[in-house]
Design goal:
The longest helix is centred in the first third of the chain and has 29 residues. This protein is mainly alpha-helical and 649 residues long. 63% of the residues lie in helices and 2% in strands. It contains 24 helices and 5 strands.
Length: 649
Amino acid sequence: MSRSATIRDRARTVGRLVFGDRHGLVLWLGLLCWFGLTWRVGFFIQDTYATANTLVALADGQLHVTRIPYSLTLGSQPGLHRYDGLLYGRNYGQLALAVPLVWALEALAVVVDPRLLLAGLWAGVALVFVGQLDRLDTVDAGWIRPMGGLVVAVLFVATLPVATDLDTDRLALAAYQLSTMLAAAAAGLAMYRLVGEFHGRRLGLVAGVALGVATPVGFWATIPKRHTLVAALTLWAVYAFAVSRRREGRTALVARAFAYGFAGFVTWTHAFEAFFLVGTLAVVDLATARRTDTRTLAVLGAALLLATAPMLATNYAISGNPAEPPRLLPNVEGGDVEFSPSADGGTDAPGGDSGGPAADGSGGTSNESGGGERVGRDSDGGFLSTARDTAGPVSEFVVGAVVDGVATLGNPTQMWHTFVRSGHIPGIPYRLNSYEVIELTVLESTPILGALLALPALVGRRLREGGRDALTRANPRTLSPIRQTDLLVVAVAAVLTVVYLSRALTYSQLTVRYLHPMVPLATYGVCRIPAVRTAAIEATGRLVGSYLVSLAFALAVVLGGIAGLELALGEAVQYHALWNLAAAAVGGAVVVAHTLTPDRVSPRTVAAGLALPAGFATAFLLLSGLVYFDYGTYAFDLVRVVADVLPTL
């Protein structure tokens, strides 16, 4: 076998391992194209300044920040921490994934005009998408490749005369955003593989597409926050767990180890969330595993240690304490340390928030021991003292998050404003959002979750069929693989929700972003409802057709309302939110109706009902990129021409 043939075979093996099949590859490429359409290179949330500057430092080969190409003062950079006279960022795992992209874009900018680089990148991905779509065994249309290629070429040529200059200093920021887009597309791919593992390819594709076009995953895809990466890794951990329950022998053990690996890798980005994710996974895994011998525990422990090694090494390099993440170091307050900026970047004002220390989900945590000494290398205290000093604040914060979250469950008003209806929420400092009411609830931003209203009916049916003890008497180890996966999904979603409930209602949440990892898990829950599965599998054509009609209707009524009522930004977002709630009610009603009376409500009706909230959710994603939020410059400048003719706020 020739060397080239060997390389091709290995590439196919890796492709099958990552994408599963060509449909998974097409889904991933398609989601990237979708996210790239409304991609703006700029700062939407002020927290991004600190992490973007840290990314520049990492690309230069160092952990600490020495220059700030983005923003002129430290006071506008929440998320910077000081230790031993040096400044550090956070989310190093997320940033490390973006470093190769920084190098790649900077190398390409040497031979390609930067103003055409991102548009050319989008066109290149779109051409590959069209080519792979044409090769699907489920698609029999010879016109896809020539017509699709022609459309992509026309779009790229049309953007040439309207392309705006892109400063090379912005390439690191663009790479940062691109890494988040890749993570969001990976989340859609994980959803496809997870749902497809149990219910087949068709429902898997519907679920993967829905996650990208009808949930906040699409909203945050181009905004480089940690939430998208954490959501993607959580979903991949659940998928690996599902595979471990469906397979036998070595394959099952490897998949099980990957589940711990994905969960453990979250520590490098956000150790707080990783603590609960790994802990919940371990509890459910050990409770449901067919067997867990010493060898298995050793493999799982090694996988977890390997996944957390980058975090431990980074922490040690910064503070000398492997267990002390940068978030526990003292915050830089007030901008009392100055740099001489190397460029006049930071010209874009943040479109979302003014950003406080807690705006990135840290809860304002800091180490009160001071930043002048390296505690981990203190000759007086030693390792045990260091561990004790670190464990105290961490355990206090973890316990406090759980206690406060459980207490919030008993606050109906806060639960209502978190999950159902936002409006003008008492206690939110709207002045930090220019007095615009732009915070949405979980249901307002993800109206397809209205289908979960059918869960009580399903539970009631299960109780009637199996008696009162039907839900509690089963041994977790004897449950089917899909039931064990359901148990993990419910447990992880519940835990990650509870620990953030007390802080979910703060400014610049937009779509309750602290609960973002819960959205893919809830979307999986929607796909587990029998009425939804039946509609998606048996009435796929009606689902797709109704979705396109719903999207057109949503754009018409929302844009018409914005223009006709002369709405401001906050009013427009809330106007859209009310439509989303109405669509969620319709979708939930038809799913409940089919669940209770399947003979009277057809799958085609359910498909049409589900398409309505999906269409309005997609419209929110499009209008967020074209109308609602104005920041930065479009990566694909032709979209700016379209945005210019739409109503302004």
